Every structure is written in structure tokens, then in C-alpha cells.
Amino acid sequence: MPLALLALAVGAFGIGTTEFVMMGLLPGVASDLHISIPTAGHLVSAYALGVVIGAPLLAAVTARMPRRTVLIGLMVLFVLGNALSGLAPGYHGLLAARFLSGLPHGAFFGVGAVVATHLVAPERKARSVSLMFLGLTVANIAGVPVATLAGQHLGWRVTFLGVSAVGVAAIVSLFLLIPRDDAPAPAGGLRGELAALRSLPVWLALGTTVAGFGALFSAYSYVTPMLTDAAGYADSSVTLLLALFGVGATIGNLAGGRLADLSLRGTLLGGMTALMAVLCLFPLLMGAPWSAALAVTLLGTAAFVTGSPLQLMVMEKASAAPSLASSANQAAFNLANAGGAWIGGLALAAGFSVTSPALAGAALAALGLAVAGLAYAVDRRTAPQPGPERLVATHVPEPTESVRG
């Protein structure tokens, strides 16, 4: 694989760290700024709001710019947002800085995925996307725990300044490793990018992302009380167990990339089915410490098997102008984060057991599987029939390559 993918992974590592580290820093931030924990929780929402707004907006306004330049500019904005977070004089300044930090998140992954697929042969495109996402999953294993530990001992401001340094390293890597001619500006410009959003298959792919990852976050948002109240773990053990989720996510991400290069649709449907099965088994697996640890690992694996296929599916359905649609998929991911957590919370608020958010997630996974099935049916109805044998697309079509339905 080309070294340029390492530059994308470094950027993804920094973004993944700053996205998830706030959960571990909330008590320290709340104490230092003299606010309540629920009020400090708005800092998480501010970042997610920045992602949802910034992903399609920045992808649209930079549609005519070379993608290499776009990626570097997005990381500059990322560094600025995290530096301002570390230097924020008070709560409202930190709230604004977190929103700013979230703006480049979705567009970086969206444009980065397009660039990644231009760096490799057609049969390795899903794998290239998974290697970029590797930075995000490794952030959950190493970046978030180390950044949380640094924030707890040196202060939360040091954490954000440290993440800014990771962003600077990403800028240097992007400048040195991304070839200029491998990331050209799209020919269609903004009009071509917006045209991609008129496609029903694109919206079905985005709907699959919302439902599928909503299933993940319905359970994952409440995994700590499951581990302590149901499985009997001490609070001090939760950080290590969440690292197991990152290990599972890394395994699933790499496996999903390899499998999707063989069968994009099969990997997506298989991953969604596996996620639904794991979530259905969650109440049983949370009955003992060893099986609870296994459940957390399997949750990460099953969920992230679908990450690369979903990203590539959106890009395939908007192959003429993929940047905006690809970035919109990241916005859909963050909508899934918020929506899944809300649905899981409804199950708890209704008085069901502490593991009930997992069953709510299983229902969302079933919905995602249904949407993915509908997308497959639409493809079969609208795609041309080349002959007695129907070929299945396994990567984004190239202009010189026949599109395999």
C-alpha cells in the first residue's frame, strides 16, 4: 500500500482522538470551568453538530479545489479548533472551539476516502479506505486512553494542545506524501457534487449508515453501566474494556476492507447480520465478566466490518462526483451517534433492564439490514443486465472500466 495512506491515517488518528476523548475529560472540564457534568456534556454535542454541518458544507464549497489542497486545509482548521480548545478562557469559548474542531471531521474522511481509492488498483479500493479508517480505530485503543490519562494528570488543556500537535504532523505528512496528480479536482464542480444527492441509491446507502451505526451507538453509549451493573466490573476496569472495543473495531475494519474487495454487498449484508446477532446476545453475554469482555470486542468487530463497505457504497452510487456524498456519509455516522444514543436512552427511561439498549440496537440493525436489502432490490431493478451471468460491483467504477452491477 502507498505511504500516502499513512498520511490519511495520521489525520484520522488525530480526529478520532479528539472526538472521543471528551467523554473521559468531562469531570475535569466541569470542575475547572465550574459547570455541571450535564452542561459539560454539551461539549460532546457541539463537536457532533460541527461534524453534521461541516461535512456536506465544506465538501460543497471546496468542490472545485484539488483534493490534496482540501485535505491540508481541513487539517489546518482541525489544528486551529483544538488549539483554541486548549486556550479557551471559559465554557462558551470552549463550546465554540469544539464546534470548530468538528467542522473538518466529516469532510476529511469523505474527501480522504476518495483520495485513498485513487492511490491503489481497483481491486484494492475497499482495503485502502479501511487503512485510512485504521487511524480512527487505533485512536480508540491508544489515542483516547493516553490523551485521557494526560488530561487527568496534566490538565485537559494539555490534551487538546497535544492533539493539535498530531494535526500538525498530519499536515506535514499530507504535504509530503499525497501526490499532487493523484488528487485532482472533480470535473463537475459543485453542481456535479450536488447532483449526486438526487440519487435514490445514495440516500438508501446513507439510510443504511444511520440505522446500522445507530444500532452500534444505541448499545455502546450505555456500555459502561452494562459492564458495572450487569457484568459486575469495577469502575476502574471500564477503560481497559473499552480498549477491547477498539481492538475489535480495528479487526473488523481491516477484515471488512479485505472482504469488501471480494464482495461489497455481501460484506455489508453479512456485517449487518452479525451486528444484529451480537446485540441480540448482549443481555446473555453481560451475565459474566469473561463473556462481557467478549461481547464488547465482538461489538466493535461486527460494527466496523461495515464501515468501509458503507463508505465505498456511497462513493459507488455517486461515482461521477463522490466527495459530497462521501462526506455526507460521515454526517450520517454522527446522526447515528446521536440518534442511537437517544433510542437506547428511551429503553432505559421506560424502565427496562440495563441491557435493554442493546436490544433496541438490534432492532435498529434489523432496520439497517432491511434498508440495505431494499437498496439491493433497487439496484437489481435499475441496473442493465449484461447477460446470463450477473456481475456484482466490488469497487468504485473507473472511467475505463465496465460497471459491474
> N- to C-terminal separation?
27 Å
Which strand-content bin applies to the residues? under 5%
Please identify which CATH superfamily of the largest domain we are dealing with: MFS general substrate transporter like domains
Biggest β-sheet strands, sense, barrel? none
State the CATH architecture of the largest domain: Up-down Bundle
Instruction: Report the average pLDDT across residues.
Output: 83
How many domains? The number is: 2
Q: Helical residue percent?
A: over 70%
Query: Radius of gyration in whole Å, from Cα?
Result: 20 Å
Number of helices: 16
Number of strands: 0
Any idea of the CATH class of the largest domain? Mainly Alpha
The helix/strand class is mainly alpha
The CATH topology name of the largest domain reads Growth Hormone, Chain: A
Annotation keywords:
single chain; 405 residues; mainly alpha; Growth Hormone, Chain: A; 2 domains; globular; disordered C terminus
What does this structure look like?
The chain crosses the membrane at residues 41-63, 70-91, 103-121, 133-152, 158-179, 200-223, 238-256, 268-286, 292-310, 331-352, 358-378. Pfam families: MFS_1. There is one protein chain. The protein is mostly helical and 405 residues long. It has 2 domains: 1-179, Up-down Bundle (Growth Hormone, Chain: A); 187-382, Up-down Bundle (Growth Hormone, Chain: A). It has helices at residues 4-33, 37-40, 42-61, 67-87, 91-118, 125-154, 156-177, 189-196, 200-220, 223-230, 238-262, 264-285, 289-305, 307-317, 322-349, 356-382. α1 (4-33) packs parallel to α6, α12 (264-285) packs antiparallel against α16 and α15 packs antiparallel against α16. The longest helix is centred in the first third of the chain and has 30 residues, at 4-33.
